[in-house]
Design goal:
Blueprint lengths: L7 E5 L2 H13 L4 E7 H4 L13 E7 L5 H10 L1 H14 L3 E5 L6 E5 L6 E3 L6 E3 L18 H15 L2
Antiparallel strand pairs: 1-3, 2-3, 4-5, 6-7
């Protein structure tokens, strides 16, 4: 998608800022998606938060094209409160997070903005969880002793048993 896509409502070089705007729109009940663009792929969409020297940028797109003008006005009207909320959030994010890999035991350093994500260990390539961040999913309902494949197999066995 390019900057000419009419669903684009926000563009920034700062991944955290674009992610924050997408989350803020979600709290307003507006479906949006965050897309990463590299300079070579389609040029750079400009906003007051980015410039033409960008090496890459993030764009927030609304899913319903009929919402574009309303969303743009909403962002402009709430710019101060969005910035204040983002600053409060930034104050709680650590600058860096050290994570010990469960697989190789080496320590990797990640930016604080990556807390709550899954990353590859730079030493061995295994996946590791960067602790922190907001996780909206209630993990207490997950039974980690049964894999999804086993669950599907058990369901198929129960269905075949039901029919005799």
């Amino acid at each position: 998608m390019s900057r000419k896509d009419p669903r684009s409502v926000f563009t920034s070089d700062d991944h955290a800022a674009a992610e924050f705007v997408a989350e803020w729109l979600g709290r307003q009940g507006i479906d949006s998606e965050l897309i990463t663009h590299i300079k070579e792929s389609d040029g750079v969409g400009l906003t007051p938060f980015s410039d033409s020297q960008s090496t890459s940028h993030m764009e927030v797109f609304v899913k319903n094209i009929d919402d574009v003008e309303t969303v743009k006005k909403l962002i402009v009207e709430n710019q101060e409160s969005i910035l204040q909320e983002a600053q409060k959030r930034d104050e709680t994010i650590p600058e860096k997070i050290a994570v010990a890999c469960d697989h190789c035991g080496e320590t990797a350093i990640y930016p604080g903005t990556m807390q709550g994500t899954v990353q590859e260990c730079p030493h061995c390539g295994e996946y590791l969880d960067v602790p922190g961040g907001e996780d909206e999913f209630d993990w207490s309902v997950v039974d980690e002793t049964i894999s999804e494949d086993e669950l599907a197999d058990n369901k198929n066995d129960e269905e075949s048993d039901a029919w005799g």
